[in-house]
TrEMBL record:
<dbReference type="GO" id="GO:0005886">
    <property type="term" value="C:plasma membrane"/>
</dbReference>
<dbReference type="Pfam" id="PF00528">
    <property type="entry name" value="BPD_transp_1"/>
</dbReference>
<comment type="similarity">
    <text>Belongs to the binding-protein-dependent transport system permease family.</text>
</comment>
<feature type="transmembrane region" description="Helical">
    <location>
        <begin position="70"/>
        <end position="94"/>
    </location>
</feature>
<keyword id="KW-1133">Transmembrane helix</keyword>
<feature type="domain" description="ABC transmembrane type-1">
    <location>
        <begin position="66"/>
        <end position="256"/>
    </location>
</feature>
<protein>
    <submittedName>
        <fullName>Carbohydrate ABC transporter permease</fullName>
    </submittedName>
</protein>
<keyword id="KW-1003">Cell membrane</keyword>
<keyword id="KW-0813">Transport</keyword>
<feature type="transmembrane region" description="Helical">
    <location>
        <begin position="135"/>
        <end position="156"/>
    </location>
</feature>
<dbReference type="GO" id="GO:0055085">
    <property type="term" value="P:transmembrane transport"/>
</dbReference>
<feature type="transmembrane region" description="Helical">
    <location>
        <begin position="177"/>
        <end position="202"/>
    </location>
</feature>
<keyword id="KW-0472">Membrane</keyword>
<feature type="transmembrane region" description="Helical">
    <location>
        <begin position="7"/>
        <end position="28"/>
    </location>
</feature>
<feature type="transmembrane region" description="Helical">
    <location>
        <begin position="101"/>
        <end position="123"/>
    </location>
</feature>
<dbReference type="InterPro" id="IPR000515">
    <property type="entry name" value="MetI-like"/>
</dbReference>
<keyword id="KW-0812">Transmembrane</keyword>
Amino acid sequence: MKKLTSSLSYVILAIISFISLFPFYMMITMSTYKTEQIFQSMPFLPSDYFGKNIATVFQSNFLQSYGNSLFISVVSMAVCVLVSAMVGYAMLVYDFKFKKALMNFIMLTMMVPTQIGIIGYMIEMRTLHLTGTLWPMILLWFANGFGAFWMIQFINGSMPMEIVESARIDGAGELKIFFGMVFPCIRPGVLTLCLLIFLWSWNSYLVPLVFVNNESLNTIPIFIKSLANAYRTDYGAQLSGLLLATIPLLIMFICGSKSFIKGLTAGAVKG
């Protein structure tokens, strides 16, 4: 019976893996075809047009768009994770007025879609004279409701208050406690949030679509869309661009997969 259950589990996992990986395989395969060939039949095997599709991608401002997306994602990730971790630490160790109301407000911000606040955010960026720069795509992540909620839950479940109190008795300052003791203890949660924020920022489409008014400010999603013109959409080149755009995400997930899974598991158990 155990062998049957184990075999059935492997079969189910294999089916789920196939369903998950098949679209990625098709993206790789279709990126090797001309646009016209893609619609003639379902291409299951690679063709010989990949080099020309890649050449089309690099003839545009792909590298600049890639650099823009990388800069936005790295800065957004670093600041969002740092601020979120500090919020989580403050909510754990300090008792202050309206603490519960602040927690409820953080949870409320998670329920509000980005689309609702985009007009107000656009007016704010115009007032600060930041339109026409990359900063509107970065500042959006400086105060992130999900990041704050994630770190509050993670720190609350993985960081004993006794450690903080012992460090204070020994004369350690708040910054030393936070960076020297708390941060290493919450490493899985931090790395998990890093992966999520980088992924969301890298794939963000709506905010760049609203604020980018110059080709030099293009991010990867806007660049891929720009490969279409009024007369023709080059799907082969777009799929090649998408393939190149997944490389940083794959590298980050491969390098941090263990911490990512550990962070998700810990968050689920302690949250």
